[in-house]
Amino acid sequence: MDNEFGNDFYTVTDETGRELTLEHLGTMQIEDHTYMAFLPADIDEDDPDYGIVLLEVVEENGEDIFATIDEDDVRAAVYELFIEELFAEEDTDNE
């Protein structure tokens, strides 16, 4: 997850119609699925809604869009893999 030129920011609309600005942390390919991890850029870290946002990239009508990960076990597995990768990257940065 190399962000040599800085992180990317995406504006997405959630299922309630609220727009969120998300900071892209990384992308991971697992089998034939692509997942992306984000942090909310416009929410204070003390807010209870603050935390890693995981979305799946899916194709709809020929376009890539973000979709929520509805299956709890898949979401948990993807979360664990991202956490492992993020902390591994942090450990190598500190060496």
Distance between the termini: 17 Å
Our count of helices gives: 1
Strand-residue fraction?
35-45%
- Radius of gyration from the CA trace? 14 Å
Overall pLDDT metric: 86
- The SS-based structural class is alpha+beta
Number of strands: 5
With strands numbered from the N-terminus, the spatial order across the biggest sheet is: 1-2-3-4-5
Indicate the overall shape. globular
Query: How would you spell out the order of helices and strands?
Result: EEEEEH
Which percent bin holds the helix content? Answer: 10-25%
Poorly predicted runs: 1-5
The domain count comes to 1
Largest sheet: 5 strands, antiparallel
Fill in the keyword field for this structure:
95 residues, alpha+beta, 1 helix, 5 strands, 40% strand, globular, disordered N terminus
Give the secondary structure arrangement, pairings included.
Blueprint: E1 9-13, E2 19-30, E3 33-40, E4 53-60, E5 63-67, H1 72-94
Antiparallel strand pairs: 1-2, 2-3, 3-4, 4-5
Please describe what this structure looks like.
The protein has 95 residues and is α+β, with helices and mostly antiparallel strands. It has one domain. Helices cover 24% and strands 40% of the residues. Strands 1-2-3-4-5 form a five-stranded antiparallel β-sheet, with helices on one face. Strand 2 and strand 3 form a beta hairpin. The longest helix has 23 residues. The radius of gyration is 14 Å and the shape is globular.
